[in-house]
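Service request form, structural biology core

Requester: graduate student, group of Dr. S.
Request type: structure prediction, single chain
Budget code: on file
Notes: please return the result as structure tokens.

Sequence provided:
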Amino acid sequence: MTLASETRAAVRREPFLHAALAAGVVNYTAAARYLDIGDEDEEAVAAALRRYAEDLSPPEPPDRSPPRVDMQSGLGPVDVADALLTVGDAAFGPVDGSLTAITISGDVAATDLGPVLARLAVEGIDVEATGGSDGHLVCLVDQSDGVDALRAVEETLDI
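Core staff response, request fulfilled:
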């Protein structure tokens, strides 16, 4: 495997670094140090990162109608028939519980869940359960984090 292909593979294993390279906001030497590609020279890896970044398209804001973001409090475990969200054997719905659902509907895709979850993690908001499909995303958080989660999701989706 060439250094260039090894470097590209290492970057693909680190989505945050891939996004930063595409956005043009990377210190290549620091990124090379972070990737720690075997016995390779740090400057050679940094050069490979520079070349890789040149091939990436910068991120573009989504061309879509703003999705609707809502908050529903009082969720907890329920029977599947009453669920707002089901993940594996766990079903969550309205039962006067301690969770809040942040629901996003409209022009959203399941892939929008990645940036939403990353933002909630940065904000220190734990997500109890989540799911999504084209047109709908749901994140369950502790009720005390509901308002902060709602704001973070709106900011992440540029609403």
